[in-house]
Amino acid sequence: LPKRVVFTSTGKTTDGKKAKVVFEANPTMRLHDIDVLHEMPYVIRRLVQALITKPFVFERYDGEAKIVIEIEGQEPFSVHGVAFNELTLMK
C-alpha cells in the first residue's frame, strides 16, 4: 500500500483559462484486490491471457484526501475529505 498518492490534471476551463487540479491522498486501507480474469468464464479468460494481459483492480480507501484547484487569474482553493479509489493494473 503506497504511503502517498498524487494525481495531477491540467487543461482549460470552458472559457479558455488554464486550470490545474491536484489530488493528494494518504491511503489508509486496501479494500479489495480483484483478479478480473478470475471472474470470467474459462474460455474467455484463456483468450484474454493469450492475447492481451492479466488485469487487476485495486480498491482503496483514503482517510485523508485533498484536492487543490488552480484556475488562471483566481486564488487557488482546496477541498479536504476522504476518498474511495479504484486503480486498474495490466500485468
Strand runs, count: 4
Radius of gyration: 18 Å
Largest sheet: 4 strands, antiparallel
User: Assembly type of the shown chains?
Assistant: single chain
Helical content class: 10-25%
Q: How much strand content do the residues show?
A: over 45%
Order of helices and strands: EEHEE
- State the separation between the terminal residues, measured CA to CA: 17 Å
Query: Structural class, from secondary structure content?
Result: mainly beta
What's the mean pLDDT score?
A: 84
Low-confidence stretches: none
Strand order across the largest sheet: 1-2-3-4
Provide structural commentary:
- The protein has 91 residues and is mainly β.
- Helix content is 11%, strand content 63%.
- It has 1 helix and 4 strands; from the N terminus they run ββαββ.
- It has one helix at residues 42-51, and strands spanning 5-12, 18-35, 55-71, 77-90.
- A 4-stranded antiparallel beta sheet has the order 1-2-3-4, with no helix packed on it.
- A hairpin with a 5-residue loop joins strand 3 and strand 4 (77-90).
- The radius of gyration is 18 Å and the shape is elongated.
- It starts with a strand and ends with a strand.
- 4% of the residues are buried.
- The model has no long low-confidence stretch (mean pLDDT 84).
